[in-house]
Amino acid sequence: MDFALTQDQRLMQESLVRTLEQASSLERVRRFAGDLKDKGADVWQALTAFGLAGIVVPEEHGGLGLTMLDAALASEALGAAIAPVPFMGVVLGPIALLRGGTAEQQAEWLPKMASGAVMAAAAISEPIAGARDGAGVTAKDGKLTGKALFVPGGLAAGLLIVADTAGGLHLVKGDAAGLTRTLMPGIDETRRLADLGFEDVAAEPLNSGDGGGGPELLAALRDAGWVLVAADSLGAAQVMLDKAVAYAKERRQFDRLIGSFQAVKHLCAEMAAELEPCRSLVWYAAYAFDAAPAEASLMAAHAKALTSEVGRFVARTATEVHGGMGITDLLGLHFWFKRLGLNRQLLGGPERVRELAARLQGLAA
Q1: Which of 258, 293, 303, 332 is the most buried (most CB within 10 A)?
Q2: Quick check: is 332 in a domain?
Q3: Which residues contact 278 (CB under 8 A, 6 or more apart)?
Q4: Domain count of the fold of the chain
Q5: Are strands 120-123 and 159-163 parallel, antiparallel or unpaired?
Q6: Within its chain, how far is the Cα of 165 from the centroid?
Q7: Is the pLDDT of residue 237 over 90?
Q8: Phi, psi torsion values for 6, nearest 5 degrees
Q9: What is the distance of C-alpha 196 from the center of its chain?
Q10: How do residues 169-202 score in pLDDT, each as one tens digit?
């Protein structure tokens, strides 16, 4: 079987990369990181004009109607550009509505998402990655109470997809009474996480779609989230590897390019050897989400766990190749380094993800 990207997919990713070179340069990212009032509106507007907001929204609702593999390729480009946009909700929001929403809910929200008028965010960390003390949301009589942590894009989202402690999913409007949003401090300055508080907040259940509601829908969002995070890590790690190789070809020490030293060659070769298998694994996990649902959860878990480990190795090693320059703000390597650090733990660290993979294969109770 010849598994490769189509020409359209390659062209889409290349075009997105060019768009990000203009809209999300390192200087633009640095300004975003240094100013909490900066919402990155110009970056989001450029990506909306590109069509990214509706990448998985069906054409009948104004979107592009593309697949999870296409979304993963976009996520890879965003990770490479360390783009300051919350892409996860762009994908998980439509998936939640398409698989668990009513026709009325889909008609109300999907066109707004496709146009970029409304951004969605998924508050699903607690039932997936484990709840911290005091976190978790309970549902009773159409109201939500509790707290959801580590919500990418939750500060500005006009629609929230919220998971309760029982695994049920709910729609919450961004202006709902009783909803509070607080910025969570984090290491990744290119993405901002929200601490969402719910005090008898009105919510609509997501349980009427063809995919059903409850744990099955939450599992689908988890798998999609893992694929997107893995793809983002793949893009970020590839840039760190490329920068390390380029630096080794120009930095001179003892009247020689450091790339001529065997130790540096080995470091670069090891990074490439570790990273390359991640690419096919991420691609297949994204493909399986739509085309091989029986394999989707296991492949997504493998992709998330492997890229989490390899991403950390590449981030550390690429920084070492740069020597003292690697930790300076001048090069900006720390932006990719920290992005990989957050991705490692987002929606569960590799240990927790591998535990699920073991259960799926019958290797653990």
Answers
A1: 303
A2: yes
A3: 230, 233, 234, 237, 303, 306, 307, 310
A4: 1
A5: parallel
A6: 22
A7: yes
A8: -75, 165
A9: 19
A10: 999 999 999 999 999 999 999 999 999 999 999 9
Q: DSSP labels for 179-242?
A: EEEEEEP-S-TTS-EEEEEEEEEE-EE---STT-STHHHHHHHHHHHHHHHHHHHHHHHHHHHH
> Tokens 């598994």 correspond to what residue?
3
Q: Does residue 131 lie within any of the structural domains?
A: no
Greater pLDDT, 259 or 305 = 305
Per DSSP, the residues of 97-125 read HHHH--HHHHHHHHHHHHHTSS-EEEE-H
Q: What is the pLDDT of residues 105-158, one digit of tens each?
A: 999 999 999 999 999 999 999 999 987 888 999 999 999 999 999 999 999 999
SS3 at position 29: helix
Report the distance separating Cα 200 and Cα 175, nearest Å: 13
Identify the domain containing residue 249 by its residue range. Answer: 215-360
The first and second tokens of residue 90, run together, are: 């762009």
229: domain CATH number is 1.20.140.10
Average pLDDT, the chain: 94
Nearest to 219 by CA among 147, 149, 308, 124: 124
Q: Is the pLDDT of residue 3 over 80?
A: no
Give the CA count within 13 Å in the CB-facing half-sphere of 319.
Answer: 18
Q: Is residue 325 part of a domain?
A: yes
CA distance 91 to 89: 5
pLDDT in tens, 36-89: 999 999 999 999 999 999 999 999 999 999 999 999 999 999 999 999 999 999
Indicate whether 23 belongs to any domain: no
